[in-house]
Amino acid sequence: MLLSLKNITKKFGDEESNTLALKNISFDVSEGEFVAIMGASGSGKSTLMHILGFLDKPTGGDYFFDSENTKNFNDEKLAALRNLKIGFVFQAYNLLARTSVLDNVLLPTIYTSGLSKALAEKLARQLLEKLGLSHRLRHWPNQLSGGEQQRAAIARALINEPRLILADEPTGNLDSKSGQEVMQILQDLNEEQHTIIMVTHEQYVAQCAKRIITLKDGQIISDEKVSNRMLAKDGLIK
């Protein structure tokens, strides 16, 4: 089991006035799964994503990652997990504007000692070639299309060979064609046994995953395998 959540709760505010954003969330994710988390605005899916990626801490409950209970991990330990074992793909790409595509992809390696500079650059070039961006290495992000920026962000997410890829509305800023290409990449990565958890509010995007967890008012209302899985290569039907 890669991760396991046991009765996770999250409150915002003080004792007099607080909002319970997540209520007793429990589920497991095994190595190699592709899970979509769905829900309307305010359902708690972004809060859950932040907790899964160690960007925020739950108020209660236990979060096991790689068989370790992260409940009492300090900020330094959580930062190390976040950088070494989690790859993030954001809706807004989050690329540094005045930094080349190649250097954007290399950013996560700055904080790790496992790769030499030469080996990290070799891996970054290989990832960018795999994602069809070998001709964009020295370009700035604003010289790329939205789809190309998201592919660069995926390469950055993969550079440290993470155990888990978290994708937050990865097609949200893309046109249909670019969105289809990004979902095809995610499906291909999953076929290579990468574990992916994706937040989306679009049913047709969620159908590209193998399992859908649906949230409402901070609670899980369904957790089901996808019976009629959509293959991105066949086109995304809105």
Description:
Helices cover 30% and strands 27% of the residues. The protein has 238 residues and is α/β, with parallel strands linked by helices. It has one domain: Rossmann fold (3-Layer(aba) Sandwich). It has a six-stranded mixed sheet with strand order 6-7-8-3-9-10, with helices on both faces. Strands 2-1-4-5 form a four-stranded antiparallel sheet, with helices on one face. Strand 9 (211-216) and strand 10 (219-225) form a beta hairpin. The two termini are 33 Å apart. The model has no long low-confidence stretch (mean pLDDT 94).
CATH superfamily label: P-loop containing nucleotide triphosphate hydrolases
Q: Assign the structural class, choosing from mainly alpha, mainly beta, alpha/beta, alpha+beta, or little secondary structure.
A: alpha/beta
Which architecture name does CATH use? 3-Layer(aba) Sandwich
Number of helices: 7
Radius of gyration: 18 Å
